[in-house]
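Posting this for the archive.
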Amino acid sequence: MAEIKHERTGASRLALWLGLVVAVAIGLFIYFGIHGRLEAESNLQNATERAAVSDVGVVHPKAAAPIDEVVLPGATQPFVNSPIYARTNGYLVKWFYDIGAKVKKGDLLAIIDTPELDKQLEQARADLASATSNLALSKITAERWQGLVKTRSVSQQSTDQAVDNLSATQASVDSYAANVRRLEDMVSFEKVYAPFDGVITVRNTDTGWLIDAGASSPSKQLFQLAQTSTLRIFVAVPEVYSRAARVGATATLTLDEFPGQTFQGRITRTSQSIDMASRTLNTEIDVDNPTEQLLPGAYVQVHLKLPNRTRSVTIPANALLFRSEGLRVGVVRNLHAQLIPITIGVDYGSSVQVTSGLTLEDQVIVSPSDSLTSGTPVRITGNSAGTTP
Protein backbone atom coordinates (compact mmCIF):
# COMPACT_ATOMS: atom_id res chain seq x y z
CA MET A 1 0.00 0.00 0.00
CA ALA A 2 2.84 2.37 0.83
CA GLU A 3 4.44 1.77 -2.52
CA ILE A 4 1.19 2.42 -4.36
CA LYS A 5 0.66 5.66 -2.44
CA HIS A 6 4.23 6.74 -3.16
CA GLU A 7 3.77 6.08 -6.90
CA ARG A 8 0.58 8.17 -6.95
CA THR A 9 2.33 11.07 -5.23
CA GLY A 10 5.17 10.97 -7.76
CA ALA A 11 2.72 10.96 -10.68
CA SER A 12 0.91 14.01 -9.23
CA ARG A 13 4.14 15.92 -8.83
CA LEU A 14 5.15 15.11 -12.41
CA ALA A 15 1.79 16.27 -13.74
CA LEU A 16 2.13 19.50 -11.72
CA TRP A 17 5.59 20.18 -13.10
CA LEU A 18 4.43 19.47 -16.60
CA GLY A 19 1.52 21.88 -16.12
CA LEU A 20 3.83 24.57 -14.83
CA VAL A 21 6.18 24.13 -17.78
CA VAL A 22 3.31 24.33 -20.25
CA ALA A 23 1.90 27.43 -18.50
CA VAL A 24 5.31 29.15 -18.55
CA ALA A 25 5.75 28.24 -22.19
CA ILE A 26 2.34 29.64 -23.05
CA GLY A 27 3.05 32.80 -21.04
CA LEU A 28 6.38 33.31 -22.74
CA PHE A 29 4.76 32.76 -26.13
CA ILE A 30 2.05 35.32 -25.40
CA TYR A 31 4.55 37.82 -23.99
CA PHE A 32 6.95 37.69 -26.92
CA GLY A 33 4.05 37.76 -29.39
CA ILE A 34 2.52 40.90 -27.85
CA HIS A 35 5.94 42.51 -27.43
CA GLY A 36 6.85 41.88 -31.06
CA ARG A 37 3.56 43.32 -32.27
CA LEU A 38 3.97 46.42 -30.12
CA GLU A 39 7.53 46.85 -31.33
CA ALA A 40 6.38 46.51 -34.98
CA GLU A 41 3.65 49.06 -34.44
CA SER A 42 6.15 51.41 -32.82
CA ASN A 43 8.57 50.97 -35.70
CA LEU A 44 5.77 51.60 -38.21
CA GLN A 45 4.70 54.76 -36.39
CA ASN A 46 8.27 56.02 -36.28
CA ALA A 47 8.74 55.30 -39.97
CA THR A 48 5.48 57.10 -40.76
CA GLU A 49 6.55 60.12 -38.75
CA ARG A 50 9.94 60.14 -40.46
CA ALA A 51 8.29 59.93 -43.88
CA ALA A 52 6.02 62.86 -43.01
CA VAL A 53 9.04 65.12 -42.46
CA SER A 54 10.37 66.43 -45.78
CA ASP A 55 14.10 66.66 -46.40
CA VAL A 56 15.01 70.11 -47.75
CA GLY A 57 18.17 71.92 -48.75
CA VAL A 58 18.55 75.53 -47.67
CA VAL A 59 20.64 78.55 -48.57
CA HIS A 60 21.24 81.85 -46.86
CA PRO A 61 20.50 85.01 -48.87
CA LYS A 62 23.56 86.90 -50.05
CA ALA A 63 23.93 90.58 -49.28
CA ALA A 64 23.90 92.81 -52.37
CA ALA A 65 25.45 96.25 -52.67
CA PRO A 66 23.09 99.15 -51.86
CA ILE A 67 21.26 100.32 -54.96
CA ASP A 68 21.12 104.01 -55.85
CA GLU A 69 20.09 103.52 -59.49
CA VAL A 70 18.25 100.94 -61.52
CA VAL A 71 19.32 99.84 -65.00
CA LEU A 72 16.55 98.70 -67.34
CA PRO A 73 16.51 97.58 -70.98
CA GLY A 74 14.78 99.55 -73.69
CA ALA A 75 14.72 100.22 -77.44
CA THR A 76 14.67 103.48 -79.34
CA GLN A 77 11.66 104.32 -81.49
CA PRO A 78 10.99 107.19 -83.90
CA PHE A 79 9.02 110.03 -82.36
CA VAL A 80 6.64 109.71 -85.31
CA ASN A 81 6.56 106.61 -87.48
CA SER A 82 3.98 106.69 -90.25
CA PRO A 83 3.23 104.25 -93.09
CA ILE A 84 2.25 106.06 -96.30
CA TYR A 85 -0.52 104.53 -98.42
CA ALA A 86 -2.06 105.45 -101.75
CA ARG A 87 -5.53 107.00 -101.73
CA THR A 88 -6.32 106.10 -105.33
CA ASN A 89 -5.96 103.12 -107.70
CA GLY A 90 -3.60 103.09 -110.63
CA TYR A 91 -0.06 102.35 -111.74
CA LEU A 92 3.05 103.85 -110.20
CA VAL A 93 4.67 106.12 -112.76
CA LYS A 94 7.73 107.13 -110.74
CA TRP A 95 9.12 107.28 -107.22
CA PHE A 96 11.62 109.94 -106.13
CA TYR A 97 13.09 108.83 -102.77
CA ASP A 98 14.62 105.56 -101.62
CA ILE A 99 15.37 104.23 -98.14
CA GLY A 100 17.63 106.47 -96.05
CA ALA A 101 16.61 109.62 -97.93
CA LYS A 102 15.78 112.68 -95.84
CA VAL A 103 12.66 114.48 -96.96
CA LYS A 104 10.87 117.66 -95.99
CA LYS A 105 7.18 118.10 -95.42
CA GLY A 106 5.44 118.47 -98.81
CA ASP A 107 8.18 116.76 -100.87
CA LEU A 108 6.82 114.72 -103.78
CA LEU A 109 7.45 111.03 -103.08
CA ALA A 110 5.71 109.29 -106.00
CA ILE A 111 3.32 109.76 -108.93
CA ILE A 112 0.46 107.37 -109.74
CA ASP A 113 -1.23 107.14 -113.15
CA THR A 114 -5.05 106.82 -112.87
CA PRO A 115 -6.60 106.76 -116.39
CA GLU A 116 -9.99 105.50 -115.21
CA LEU A 117 -10.23 108.24 -112.62
CA ASP A 118 -9.29 110.89 -115.19
CA LYS A 119 -12.12 109.72 -117.45
CA GLN A 120 -14.56 109.84 -114.56
CA LEU A 121 -13.52 113.41 -113.86
CA GLU A 122 -14.08 114.39 -117.50
CA GLN A 123 -17.55 112.85 -117.44
CA ALA A 124 -18.39 114.57 -114.14
CA ARG A 125 -17.34 117.94 -115.56
CA ALA A 126 -19.47 117.37 -118.65
CA ASP A 127 -22.45 116.46 -116.46
CA LEU A 128 -21.86 119.64 -114.46
CA ALA A 129 -21.76 121.73 -117.63
CA SER A 130 -25.05 120.16 -118.84
CA ALA A 131 -26.69 120.76 -115.48
CA THR A 132 -25.45 124.36 -115.46
CA SER A 133 -27.04 124.96 -118.89
CA ASN A 134 -30.32 123.47 -117.68
CA LEU A 135 -30.11 125.72 -114.63
CA ALA A 136 -29.77 128.82 -116.80
CA LEU A 137 -32.80 127.79 -118.86
CA SER A 138 -34.84 126.99 -115.73
CA LYS A 139 -33.93 130.36 -114.27
CA ILE A 140 -35.07 132.23 -117.39
CA THR A 141 -38.28 130.22 -117.51
CA ALA A 142 -39.08 130.83 -113.86
CA GLU A 143 -38.45 134.58 -114.14
CA ARG A 144 -40.59 134.79 -117.30
CA TRP A 145 -43.49 132.93 -115.74
CA GLN A 146 -43.30 135.05 -112.61
CA GLY A 147 -43.70 138.13 -114.83
CA LEU A 148 -46.61 136.65 -116.77
CA VAL A 149 -48.51 135.59 -113.67
CA LYS A 150 -48.83 139.25 -112.67
CA THR A 151 -50.85 139.93 -115.85
CA ARG A 152 -52.82 136.72 -115.36
CA SER A 153 -51.41 135.36 -118.63
CA VAL A 154 -50.46 132.07 -116.97
CA SER A 155 -51.82 130.23 -114.00
CA GLN A 156 -50.25 130.32 -110.58
CA GLN A 157 -49.89 126.53 -110.70
CA SER A 158 -47.71 126.68 -113.80
CA THR A 159 -45.62 129.43 -112.25
CA ASP A 160 -45.07 127.39 -109.09
CA GLN A 161 -43.99 124.42 -111.18
CA ALA A 162 -41.43 126.56 -113.01
CA VAL A 163 -40.03 127.86 -109.71
CA ASP A 164 -39.83 124.37 -108.25
CA ASN A 165 -38.09 123.14 -111.41
CA LEU A 166 -35.51 125.91 -110.94
CA SER A 167 -34.85 124.73 -107.36
CA ALA A 168 -34.52 121.10 -108.47
CA THR A 169 -32.12 122.07 -111.26
CA GLN A 170 -30.06 124.10 -108.78
CA ALA A 171 -29.83 121.07 -106.52
CA SER A 172 -28.68 118.95 -109.46
CA VAL A 173 -25.97 121.48 -110.26
CA ASP A 174 -24.79 121.45 -106.63
CA SER A 175 -24.67 117.62 -106.70
CA TYR A 176 -22.66 117.52 -109.93
CA ALA A 177 -20.32 120.21 -108.60
CA ALA A 178 -19.73 118.19 -105.41
CA ASN A 179 -18.97 115.10 -107.48
CA VAL A 180 -16.46 117.07 -109.56
CA ARG A 181 -14.75 118.32 -106.43
CA ARG A 182 -14.62 114.76 -105.05
CA LEU A 183 -13.01 113.43 -108.21
CA GLU A 184 -10.60 116.36 -108.32
CA ASP A 185 -9.54 115.46 -104.80
CA MET A 186 -9.06 111.85 -105.87
CA VAL A 187 -7.01 112.96 -108.86
CA SER A 188 -4.87 115.08 -106.54
CA PHE A 189 -3.97 111.85 -104.72
CA GLU A 190 -2.10 110.80 -107.86
CA LYS A 191 0.82 112.63 -106.28
CA VAL A 192 2.03 111.31 -102.92
CA TYR A 193 3.61 113.91 -100.64
CA ALA A 194 5.58 113.61 -97.40
CA PRO A 195 3.35 114.53 -94.41
CA PHE A 196 6.28 115.68 -92.22
CA ASP A 197 10.06 115.98 -92.11
CA GLY A 198 11.75 112.64 -91.70
CA VAL A 199 13.68 109.72 -93.17
CA ILE A 200 12.36 107.09 -95.56
CA THR A 201 12.92 103.79 -93.76
CA VAL A 202 10.89 101.47 -96.03
CA ARG A 203 10.01 101.49 -99.74
CA ASN A 204 7.55 98.77 -100.79
CA THR A 205 6.86 99.74 -104.41
CA ASP A 206 8.51 100.25 -107.76
CA THR A 207 7.80 101.74 -111.17
CA GLY A 208 4.93 100.04 -112.99
CA TRP A 209 3.43 98.37 -109.94
CA LEU A 210 -0.34 98.21 -109.64
CA ILE A 211 -1.46 100.36 -106.73
CA ASP A 212 -4.64 99.25 -104.97
CA ALA A 213 -6.22 101.62 -102.48
CA GLY A 214 -9.54 99.79 -102.24
CA ALA A 215 -11.19 99.25 -98.88
CA SER A 216 -12.33 95.73 -99.81
CA SER A 217 -8.79 94.34 -100.02
CA PRO A 218 -5.86 95.16 -97.73
CA SER A 219 -3.82 97.91 -99.35
CA LYS A 220 -0.03 97.86 -99.25
CA GLN A 221 2.00 100.74 -97.91
CA LEU A 222 4.20 102.56 -100.40
CA PHE A 223 6.69 104.08 -97.97
CA GLN A 224 7.37 104.32 -94.27
CA LEU A 225 8.48 107.69 -92.95
CA ALA A 226 10.13 108.13 -89.55
CA GLN A 227 10.85 111.33 -87.66
CA THR A 228 14.17 110.70 -85.91
CA SER A 229 15.20 114.15 -84.69
CA THR A 230 13.65 113.05 -81.39
CA LEU A 231 13.43 109.44 -80.27
CA ARG A 232 11.11 107.73 -77.82
CA ILE A 233 12.10 104.95 -75.42
CA PHE A 234 9.46 102.94 -73.56
CA VAL A 235 10.70 101.25 -70.39
CA ALA A 236 8.86 98.83 -68.10
CA VAL A 237 9.87 100.02 -64.62
CA PRO A 238 9.30 97.39 -61.88
CA GLU A 239 6.77 98.42 -59.28
CA VAL A 240 9.39 98.46 -56.52
CA TYR A 241 11.34 101.13 -58.46
CA SER A 242 8.34 103.11 -59.71
CA ARG A 243 9.37 106.10 -57.59
CA ALA A 244 12.34 106.57 -59.93
CA ALA A 245 9.96 107.23 -62.84
CA ARG A 246 9.23 110.88 -62.07
CA VAL A 247 7.97 113.00 -64.95
CA GLY A 248 10.63 115.59 -65.80
CA ALA A 249 13.48 113.56 -64.27
CA THR A 250 16.65 112.91 -66.26
CA ALA A 251 17.54 109.43 -67.50
CA THR A 252 21.02 108.38 -68.62
CA LEU A 253 21.31 106.11 -71.64
CA THR A 254 24.17 103.83 -72.64
CA LEU A 255 24.55 101.78 -75.81
CA ASP A 256 26.93 98.95 -76.62
CA GLU A 257 27.92 100.57 -79.92
CA PHE A 258 29.06 103.73 -78.09
CA PRO A 259 31.31 102.42 -75.27
CA GLY A 260 32.18 105.03 -72.67
CA GLN A 261 29.61 107.49 -74.05
CA THR A 262 26.33 108.45 -72.40
CA PHE A 263 23.22 110.19 -73.69
CA GLN A 264 20.69 112.20 -71.75
CA GLY A 265 16.96 111.75 -71.97
CA ARG A 266 13.97 113.08 -70.07
CA ILE A 267 10.98 111.24 -68.66
CA THR A 268 8.01 112.85 -70.39
CA ARG A 269 5.09 110.68 -69.24
CA THR A 270 4.07 107.45 -67.55
CA SER A 271 0.99 105.29 -67.77
CA GLN A 272 0.10 106.27 -64.17
CA SER A 273 -0.95 102.66 -63.65
CA ILE A 274 0.82 99.45 -62.65
CA ASP A 275 0.30 96.65 -65.16
CA MET A 276 -1.41 93.79 -63.32
CA ALA A 277 0.31 91.07 -65.36
CA SER A 278 3.93 92.27 -65.25
CA ARG A 279 3.75 94.50 -62.15
CA THR A 280 5.56 97.27 -64.03
CA LEU A 281 4.99 100.95 -64.84
CA ASN A 282 5.16 101.86 -68.53
CA THR A 283 7.40 104.92 -68.83
CA GLU A 284 8.27 107.05 -71.87
CA ILE A 285 11.66 108.75 -72.21
CA ASP A 286 12.33 111.28 -75.00
CA VAL A 287 15.87 111.82 -76.31
CA ASP A 288 16.92 114.71 -78.54
CA ASN A 289 18.74 113.38 -81.60
CA PRO A 290 19.58 116.43 -83.78
CA THR A 291 22.62 114.77 -85.39
CA GLU A 292 20.69 111.50 -85.81
CA GLN A 293 23.57 109.65 -84.19
CA LEU A 294 21.13 107.31 -82.49
CA LEU A 295 19.22 104.98 -84.78
CA PRO A 296 15.63 103.82 -84.25
CA GLY A 297 15.35 100.27 -82.99
CA ALA A 298 18.68 100.33 -81.14
CA TYR A 299 18.97 98.47 -77.83
CA VAL A 300 19.73 100.80 -74.93
CA GLN A 301 20.23 100.53 -71.20
CA VAL A 302 18.32 103.14 -69.23
CA HIS A 303 19.80 104.29 -65.91
CA LEU A 304 17.23 105.77 -63.51
CA LYS A 305 18.25 107.39 -60.23
CA LEU A 306 16.43 106.15 -57.14
CA PRO A 307 15.25 108.73 -54.58
CA ASN A 308 16.73 106.60 -51.75
CA ARG A 309 19.25 103.81 -51.55
CA THR A 310 17.67 100.38 -51.48
CA ARG A 311 19.24 97.46 -49.64
CA SER A 312 18.61 94.03 -51.04
CA VAL A 313 19.69 90.38 -51.04
CA THR A 314 20.00 87.77 -53.77
CA ILE A 315 18.70 84.21 -53.77
CA PRO A 316 18.71 81.41 -56.38
CA ALA A 317 15.88 81.58 -58.88
CA ASN A 318 14.91 77.97 -58.11
CA ALA A 319 13.82 79.05 -54.61
CA LEU A 320 10.81 80.96 -55.94
CA LEU A 321 7.25 79.72 -55.56
CA PHE A 322 4.60 81.17 -57.87
CA ARG A 323 1.26 81.11 -56.10
CA SER A 324 -2.08 82.67 -56.92
CA GLU A 325 -1.73 85.09 -54.02
CA GLY A 326 1.69 86.27 -55.29
CA LEU A 327 5.38 85.42 -55.28
CA ARG A 328 6.57 83.41 -52.25
CA VAL A 329 9.69 81.68 -50.91
CA GLY A 330 9.89 78.96 -48.28
CA VAL A 331 12.04 79.47 -45.17
CA VAL A 332 12.77 77.08 -42.29
CA ARG A 333 11.75 78.30 -38.84
CA ASN A 334 11.62 75.96 -35.82
CA LEU A 335 11.97 72.96 -38.13
CA HIS A 336 8.82 73.96 -39.98
CA ALA A 337 8.42 75.56 -43.41
CA GLN A 338 6.93 79.05 -43.66
CA LEU A 339 5.92 80.70 -46.93
CA ILE A 340 7.08 84.34 -47.00
CA PRO A 341 5.93 86.99 -49.54
CA ILE A 342 8.82 88.81 -51.20
CA THR A 343 9.37 91.67 -53.63
CA ILE A 344 11.59 91.09 -56.65
CA GLY A 345 13.92 93.81 -57.91
CA VAL A 346 16.08 92.58 -60.82
CA ASP A 347 16.00 89.14 -62.41
CA TYR A 348 19.55 88.00 -63.17
CA GLY A 349 18.49 84.67 -64.67
CA SER A 350 19.94 82.07 -62.31
CA SER A 351 19.37 84.37 -59.32
CA VAL A 352 17.02 87.19 -58.42
CA GLN A 353 17.31 90.31 -56.35
CA VAL A 354 14.93 90.53 -53.38
CA THR A 355 14.28 94.00 -52.04
CA SER A 356 11.94 93.08 -49.19
CA GLY A 357 10.79 90.04 -47.22
CA LEU A 358 14.11 88.30 -46.42
CA THR A 359 17.10 88.80 -44.13
CA LEU A 360 20.62 87.38 -44.24
CA GLU A 361 19.80 84.98 -41.37
CA ASP A 362 16.85 83.31 -43.10
CA GLN A 363 17.23 79.71 -44.26
CA VAL A 364 15.66 79.69 -47.72
CA ILE A 365 14.48 76.36 -49.14
CA VAL A 366 15.83 75.63 -52.61
CA SER A 367 13.85 73.66 -55.18
CA PRO A 368 10.76 73.48 -52.93
CA SER A 369 7.89 71.16 -53.74
CA ASP A 370 4.85 72.76 -55.36
CA SER A 371 2.74 71.26 -52.56
CA LEU A 372 4.77 72.95 -49.82
CA THR A 373 2.58 74.83 -47.33
CA SER A 374 3.23 76.85 -44.21
CA GLY A 375 3.58 74.69 -41.10
CA THR A 376 4.92 71.61 -42.89
CA PRO A 377 7.61 69.87 -40.75
CA VAL A 378 10.95 69.71 -42.57
CA ARG A 379 14.41 68.30 -41.99
CA ILE A 380 17.45 70.24 -43.19
CA THR A 381 19.79 67.99 -45.14
CA GLY A 382 22.56 70.61 -45.45
CA ASN A 383 23.34 73.94 -47.05
CA SER A 384 23.57 74.06 -50.81
CA ALA A 385 26.85 74.88 -52.47
CA GLY A 386 27.70 78.50 -52.97
CA THR A 387 25.77 79.81 -49.98
CA THR A 388 27.06 82.12 -47.31
CA PRO A 389 28.06 80.49 -44.01
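The longest strand covers residues 67-84. The chain has a mean pLDDT of 82.
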